[in-house]
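Job type: complex structure
Entries:
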Amino acid sequence: MNMQNQNRNGYMLLFVGMDWHKGLSPEQTQKVSEDWMAWFKRLNEQGKAVAGHPLGLEGKSVSGKNRTVTDGPFAEAKEAIGGYFMLAVPTMDEAVAIAQQCPGLPYGAKVEVRPVLSDCPMKPENKIEESLVGAK
Amino acid sequence: MNAIEMSNDGYLLLFHTNQWWQELGREELQQVIEQNHVWIERLMTTGKARGGQALARKGALVAGKNGRTIVDGPFAESKEVIGGYLLLNVATFEEAVAIAKSSPGLAYGSSIEVRPLTNVCPSAARLKELMGEEQLATA
């Protein structure tokens, strides 16, 4: 991947892991939580984060032809998404640099950094070309 | 579609996908794309959805004490990743789930995670709860 690539659509940070506070004292948990909120506020004031939310613990998952609904989209709190930020920064490098400031990292949280697309990913050029030559 | 503003409530749909569209022929693919487009347009014009975007199938994962571990590059084709999101303006979980159930992509192997948006960090909320219990226990 070319890390210098510009992306005018920005980047999404997905915070992976909802159990980072395990093993922390109430005071420590509160401190990290406040740091996290302050971090968002600062990025927001700088115009670098345009949106963001923690996600509630509860959730449902909908899947399959029969549109089956199951409780809890996640098997493990460790892999669950706990929140997101939308970043209005132009490069992957800057988005990663921001992700590296996440206050949850020392406690096991992970941050997925993903470029936002302006168009639907279901029609990448290579797929259209494949269809045109009748390869599939 | 644009990114959204901060808001007090609502639900987030996260689309988990493994690139099922690679398996479809041109006509079927075109049909699903159109259905999907119509589905989202309808949600936007009725005010049920307030924003959504697709995510590139590449990126980085930052982890470790100082954020020094960075894994990057495209994801394996078979790997299920979050391919996009849609923010819903609806008031109840039931309505959010009902909307998720009407997604055209489900029939092809997408699964949709439905999550409430909060303004309070869940861990901080849990902490408050625990402190309340302690107070009750000592009262």
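Summary: Strands of chain A lie at 11-16, 49-54, 60-63, 68-71, 81-87, 110-117. Residues 26-45 of chain A form the longest helix (20 residues).
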